[in-house]
Amino acid sequence: MLAINFFSHHVAGSIYFMAPLTFLFSVNIILFIYILLKKDFESNFVVAFKQIGLLIFAYGIFGTLVGLLQMFDALESIKDTLPLSVISGGIKVALLNVLYGAGYFCISHTGYIAIKIL
Fold first, then answer.
1. Which residue in 79, 106, 109, 113 has the fewest CB atoms around it within 10 Å?
2. Nearest-angstrom CA–CA distance, 106 and 78
3. Containing H/E element for 39?
4. What gap in Å lies between CA 106 and CA 98, rounded to an integer?
5. What pTM did the predictor assign?
6. For residue 60, which of 18, 10, 24 has the smallest C-alpha distance?
7. Is the four-CA dihedral 58, 28, 104, 93 of positive or negative sign?
8. C-alpha–C-alpha distance, residues 42 and 19, integer Å
9. Using one digit for the tens of pLDDT, what is the confidence trace for 74-96?
10. Better-scored residue on pLDDT, 15 or 36
11. Angle between the 2-12 and 15-38 helix axes, to the nearest 10 degrees?
12. How many whole angstroms separate alpha carbon 21 and alpha carbon 10?
């Protein structure tokens, strides 16, 4: 069930923003495992791990801003009064990018803290 929601969120939140977020997070997981296996806690890979985590968060915010701009452009072109559910649905979809970006960032940053403690 969770995988179905995960995929539907990716489609709803624009695959152009959600797919790179998931790809970057996957790269970060691979980097984390590599750092732990090599026990190289002071290398440039640690810095890259942290910077990719920040990039994930920034890209999530960027995707949200693009989604909000598209939503407001569409609302501006409509001359009729829209129900609140249409507007709140658009905001919900626009916020998916920042939600996933922040979640991935929190997980990545927790891994960075663990690396620094080791």
1. 79
2. 38
3. none
4. 12
5. 0.82
6. 18
7. positive
8. 30
9. 888 887 877 777 788 878 888 88
10. 36
11. 120
12. 10
